[in-house]
Amino acid sequence: MRPIQNGFTLIELMVTLVVAMILVGVGAPSLKSMYEGYRSDSEIRKVNQSLQFARSHAVSYGSRVTMCPIVSGSCNADWSKGFKIFLDNGTLNKIDGDDEVLTVIGAFNSSDFVSFSPKAINFTTDGLTSAGLFIYCPGSKSSPESMGLQINASGTARFSTATNLNCN
Questions:
Q1: Is residue 105 part of a domain?
Q2: What is the pLDDT of residues 128-137, one digit of tens each?
Q3: Where is it predominantly found (predicted)?
Q4: What is the per-residue burial (b if ≥16 Cβ within 10 Å, else e) of 53-65?
Q5: Residue 92 is assigned to a structural domain of this protein
Q6: Where in the sequence is the domain holding 128, given as residue range(s)?
């Protein structure tokens, strides 16, 4: 009579690993889409919070507050590199003498695209701004996971319900 052996044989272990690899290979593409959806949602909410922060400070300080991507002290149009929010007491859309940087938001994911037509969002002392649509596209300019933030002239923002957003 043979003794009872507890454990796996090498063949059983190899078959289990092959089955696991097949399952991971099938499931991985859908995980990418899910990850892009979460990233898009997270980043557009960060922009929304930044807008609320800027508007709140414009009203609280009784001063113009600007939110824009900065290159060499001036606003530019490349929102993907992140942006600064600052009290804009001097030259419009430029950090100069009397301006105070309130916060800095770092760059978005390097594989993502951001689209926003004006190069700056300026809040007046009563919280008003110009209207626009901020679009975040994870992974590609026409990603199905793209999200938008509709900015109203009253200074408030809402998540866009459009389904065909792209960052072209």
A1: yes
A2: 999 999 999 9
A3: membrane
A4: bbbebbbeeebbb
A5: yes
A6: 34-159
